[in-house]
Write a structure and sequence with these properties.
Layout (H helix, E strand, L loop, with lengths): L1 H13 L10 H24 L4 H30 L2 H15 L3 H7 L16 H23 L3 H4 L1 H29 L3 H4 L1 H16 L1 H5 L3 H21 L12 H16 L4 H6 L2 H8 L1 H19 L18 H27 L2 H4 L2 H25 L3 H4 L50 H6 L9 E2 L13 E3 L6 E7 L1 H4 L2 H11 L1 E8 L10 E2 L4 E2 L1 H15 L6 E5 L4 H4 L13 H16 L6 E4 L9 H7 L9 E2 H4 L4 H10 L4 E4 L2 H4 L4 E2 L18 H6 L1 H13 L1
Parallel strand pairs: 1-4, 3-4, 3-7, 7-8, 8-10
Antiparallel strand pairs: 2-4, 5-6, 9-11
Helix pairs in contact: 1-2, 1-15, 1-16, 2-6, 2-10, 2-13, 3-4, 3-16, 3-17, 3-19, 4-5, 4-19, 5-6, 6-10, 8-10, 10-13, 12-13, 16-17, 23-32, 26-29
């Protein structure tokens, strides 16, 4: 079973599309671990009446820590050599979390999307090891408290057994309910939390308690259970994918499938499916499964970091997924297996069975402390070594043609040359952007150069709050030359610096309403970060449209939105859209929203999405500070990706809707650059402008918006 579990996980992470639900291999591991560990603990209680915790933890140290530490240290070294300097500190923090067996909580707090492609933390997979180790701390203590501290098991085994079974039932049911609720809410803690995964280990523990009953099962029943279990596990791997709300109740299928396999193997290990799973090849893979699980992920991630390419023009909806070619992926999988075999025989087995460690538990525990120390030192070394001038020094200007110069001066218009408006912050209720006016010119500055919002005008995923309009107003409070509402997601928020500067220079008033990943068009969308429908988006949208409808003297509503709604909008059957079928849905959704906006203004201006680079820009620039041309991208692949949305929005209100496009300014040649001719970095990731570059576009943007209003 270990072989099946690790093969599913490796195939999934390698990008084998047929195994879109291969992540369920981790759930199989949880069931197996719960079964094996609880079996050892219960046998010890039955034999001695108690649990020797020091001996138990010493065995865990010898079994898990040597190889875990080796992989963490090797990952630290490889990350220093292969990862862009700007990303090393984040990986160092991940390494520290993994070393302290708290990786799951760190990644949950960081809202990391485990289902995403392997262009992520190279120790992300340590979350599952952290869950298991945390369970190993809590579960033996609970058993000891229930039956092992008073010798109850030796005096009255039936009473002790009932106590353990009752506690286990409460644990399983309670954890499953919490998992179901948090999964339904879209919380990242649902995937990574011990409290949401404990029931899976608990199912394995229940099988350990039920071994006497399982031994009385008929061979025919065992054979049927094995077939059913295998079908459930494999079916889960083939039918589930990243859109499956998981774990929650969906995890019941692979977990119960694994339980059937374990139960059948207990009764008839040499027959049918159980015998097939005992094939020498599968047994060998199972023997090195722990080592392979540890090695495969960092090797794949670092291979993608070194050799991966982001297809900027792809229609997958992915903004940041770097993909190495299949030969590279296969080589990475083979390398990880070779490392697993070598480390299994050189490190894992020798230290696990070392006589000098087994002879004294104190030695094993001291070894554990030393190994954790080694992992932390590796983390600190990467953090210190990761501080590089490549992320702190200004990048060079592009040498190739196509780098945008300073935005051209706007053509004369009624808006140009008007008297300046008030400075942001002079009027009550204004929400100034607290940002340096110049830059960014270094990768580190670019990564953090985003519009600042201190007035809750830009809200996060879980919020539905909409502040009063005056709280999110900047520019003139009275006598404004133009009054505009800027509405949308982070791709609306990225235009705040440009419009805030326009408000100051041209006497405009701007109202801002923005929510992360939320479209203004009245369409249900899928929230990739939480793997659930984005319910709070619709609630927030309704409030915002009502708020906008109440603004007097509004010249236009300016909408900013992400191009990837072409694949994240949900069709009536709950499936995600494609660029080919998004049209009718987006047209009707836009009609509903535009009709509400028409109560306040006759003009709706949609900002076409900006060109999409082929890689994370600060990361690329920190790797190639003196050759920024390598970070550029093909114009045809990186532009016009929101064409299907544009067509649908125009059809929704042909007389009211106008579009503003600055692609010609950002990308004047066939190859787009990510740094201006003056050395200013244009992007802070793969699809957002830096605040500094946005502000530099204020004349172009405000002129084109003004022209759209007057058209």
């Amino acid at each position: 079973m270990r072989a099946i579990a690790v093969l599913l996980v490796v195939a999934f992470h390698a990008g084998v599309k047929a195994v879109s639900g291969g992540f369920v291999g981790v759930d199989v591991f949880f069931v197996l671990s719960g079964f094996l560990i609880t079996g050892l603990l219960v046998d010890e209680i039955a034999r001695t009446g108690t649990i020797l915790l020091a001996d138990f933890y010493a065995r865990r140290v010898r079994r898990l820590l040597p190889l875990s530490t080796l992989v963490l240290a090797a990952t630290a070294v490889a990350s220093f050599l292969l990862v862009p300097p700007i990303d090393r500190k984040g990986i160092a923090a991940d390494l520290a979390g993994a070393a302290l067996w708290g990786a799951n909580w760190r990644f949950a707090a960081e809202s990391t999307q485990y289902m995403a492609d392997t262009d992520k933390s190279p120790v992300l997979h340590y979350w599952s090891l952290s869950v298991e180790e945390q369970f190993y701390v809590v579960w033996p203590l609970l058993l000891l408290l229930l039956v092992g501290s008073s010798g109850l098991a030796l005096r009255a085994w039936d009473v002790a057994f009932r106590r353990m079974a009752l506690a286990l039932a409460v644990l399983v049911v309670g954890s499953l309910v919490v998992s179901w609720q948090l999964t339904a809410s879209g919380s990242p803690f649902a995937y990574f939390g011990l409290h949401t995964r404990a029931w899976e280990l608990g199912i394995g523990a229940a099988l350990a308690l039920a071994r006497p009953a399982l031994g009385r099962m008929t061979r025919r029943a065992a054979h049927a259970a094995a077939l059913t279990g295998l079908a459930m596990v494999v079916g889960s791997a083939l039918l589930m994918d990243e859109s499956t709300p998981f774990p929650g109740t969906a995890a019941l299928l692979p977990v119960l499938g694994a339980a059937f396999l374990v139960g059948a193997g207990t009764r008839a290990p040499d027959e049918g499916v159980s015998r097939a799973l005992g094939h020498p090849v599968l047994r060998y893979i199972g023997r090195v499964s722990y080592a392979w699980y540890l090695w495969h992920w960092p090797v794949l991630v670092l291979a993608n970091t070194r050799f991966g390419q982001v297809p900027a023009g792809s229609d997958t909806g992915e903004a940041t997924a770097a993909h190495a070619s299949w030969p590279v992926v296969l080589a990475a999988v083979a390398l990880s297996f070779a490392l697993a075999v070598a480390s299994h025989y050189v490190v894992e087995q020798p230290l696990r069975h070392a006589g000098f460690l087994k002879s004294g538990r104190g030695r094993s525990l001291r070894l554990g402390g030393a190994l954790i120390g080694v992992s932390l030192v590796s983390s600190c070394a990467l953090m210190v070594g990761g501080s590089s001038s490549a992320e702190q020094d200004a990048v060079s200007a592009p040498q190739a043609a196509g780098a945008p110069a300073a935005p051209p001066a706007p053509a004369p218009s009624p808006a140009a040359g008007e008297e300046p408006g008030e400075e942001p912050g002079e009027e009550p209720g204004e929400a100034p952007a607290e940002r340096k006016p110049a830059g960014p010119v270094t990768p580190a500055e670019a990564r953090d150069d985003r519009p600042r919002d201190g007035s809750d005008c830009y809200v996060s995923y879980d919020s539905t709050s909409v502040p009063p309009a005056d709280q999110c107003r900047f520019g003139r409070a009275k006598g404004a030359k133009r009054t505009i509402a800027l509405v949308g997601d982070s791709h609306a928020m990225q235009w705040r610096p440009a419009l805030e500067r326009a408000a100051k220079e041209r006497g405009w008033t701007i109202y801002l309403f923005a929510k992360s990943s939320c479209t203004v068009s009245d369409a249900p969308v899928w929230l990739k970060q939480n793997k659930a429908p984005y319910d709070t988006c619709g609630q927030w949208r309704d409030k915002v449209l009502d708020r906008v409808a109440g603004i007097k003297g509004l010249d236009a509503v300016v909408i900013g939105r992400w191009m990837d709604y072409r694949t994240l909008a949900l069709q009536a059957d709950g499936s995600q859209s494609t660029p080919e079928n998004i049209g009718p849905l987006w047209t009707e959704a836009s009609k509903r929203s535009f009709a509400k906006m028409a109560k306040a203004t006759k003009r709706i201006v949609v900002m076409k999405d900006v060109p999409r680079p082929a890689a994370d820009v600060p990361s690329c620039l920190s790797q190639h500070p003196d050759d920024v041309d390598r970070c550029g991208f093909d114009r045809d692949q990186g532009t016009g990706l929101d064409a299907a949305l544009v067509k649908a929005e125009k059809a929704a209100a042909p007389k009211a809707v106008c579009f503003v496009d600055v692609t010609d300014v950002m990308c004047p040649a066939k190859r787009c650059q990510v740094v201006t001719a003056q050395g200013q970095i244009m992007f802070r990731d793969t699809h957002h402008l830096t605040a500094g570059y946005s502000e530099s576009l204020w004349k172009v943007v405000s002129d084109r918006i003004d022209k759209a209003i007057r058209s």
